[in-house]
Design brief:
single chain, about 300 residues, alpha+beta, five-stranded mixed β-sheet, two-stranded antiparallel sheet, 7 strands
């Protein structure tokens, strides 16, 4: 037993020492590598500091020893600061901008005016159509007779806008009684500023050749809707500042040259200009926007005695 210990003890101790030395060797190697990296990084930092210091010294030396270089450098700095400042408009630039804006406005205003006229014409046609619906309701209540130009309502004689408004639309007579103001509700057209007077209570007129006086008096033709062979060619309502069309004399709001048709939907043309536009509603209910000259308006040839003025 003793002999075995004597034999193996040195071997065992030798291996433990070798293992210990190997571990320490590995630790030493790791420490050596770490120190190498630290030294390399330190050398790099020192090199950068040296370059920066050298550049600063050179720049300072050049600036100090070369006055022209310093002037160029200062000029560059001043130029940069000048461009960093906010630039203001000069008087000429401001005038140019104003001129451009004025030019654009002059180009756009006619287009805007035309669009406004078009919108007014559409609204006018819609109002006319609603008035025609009221006329149709009147016919249904009165054995198919069309609404006359003069109507008897609440025991009084009323011109057709007032009569329709009171009987069909439940409007009050007070809505039509004030002169010098615009016609109420659907009896107005946005394309005109016509004011109500003693007899004209709407912005439209009707042919006095297609009507029925409430008491059958006078020479006006009595007619029912069923009597119209071609209602789509007979005028029911048209743009006018007079309640009756086809007058040959000159009442306050009359224009005999156009059978009292008032053009109001084309630019600034005069109301009696044959090229001006009007809205016309026919007895079949359709509404058209047309030039005055497209309708027969020659009194010398008795145009008022045929369609669209009478059957």
């Amino acid at each position: 037993m003793l002999n075995l210990l004597e034999i193996w003890a040195p071997v065992f101790l030798t291996r433990r020492r070798e293992e210990h030395e190997g571990h320490e060797g590995q630790t030493v190697r790791q420490q050596y590598i770490l120190k190498m990296f630290e030294r390399k990084e330190m050398d790099s930092n020192m090199k950068n500091l040296h370059v920066q210091s050298k550049w600063h010294d050179t720049n300072h030396a050049v600036s100090s020893s070369c006055p022209s270089c310093l002037r160029v450098k200062n000029k560059i700095h001043r130029h940069a600061k000048k461009h960093l400042k906010t630039s203001a408009f000069t008087l000429i630039e401001l005038l140019v901008v104003i001129s451009i804006i004025s030019l654009l406005i002059s180009i756009l205003l006619p287009a805007l005016a035309a669009a406004r006229k078009s919108a007014q014409s559409v609204q006018c046609a819609a109002n006319q159509r609603q008035v025609f619906v009221a006329m149709t309701a009147y016919s249904q209540n009165h054995k198919d007779w069309i609404a006359p130009i003069v109507m008897k309502v609440d025991g009084n004689n009323r011109f057709w806008p007032v009569g329709l408004g009171m009987e069909i639309l439940n409007m009050q007579v007070t809505e039509f009684s004030t002169n010098g103001v615009r016609p109420p509700g659907i009896f107005s057209c946005p394309g005109t500023q016509h004011l109500m007077d003693g007899g004209d209570k709407s912005d439209w007129g009707r042919s006095n050749w297609i009507c029925r006086i409430y008491d059958g008096a006078g020479t006006d033709v009595e007619i029912r809707n069923a009597d119209m062979i071609k209602p789509g060619k007979l005028l029911a309502i048209a743009d006018s500042d007079n309640r009756e069309l086809t007058f040959t004399n000159a009442p306050p709001d009359g224009i005999p040259s156009t059978f009292n048709l008032w053009g109001r939907h084309k630019g600034s043309l005069a109301a009696d200009n044959p090229k001006n536009l009007i809205n016309v509603t026919y007895f079949d209910g359709h509404v058209v926007n047309t030039a005055i000259k497209e309708l027969p308006i020659d009194s010398s040839t008795n145009d008022h005695k045929r369609a669209p003025w009478q059957p």
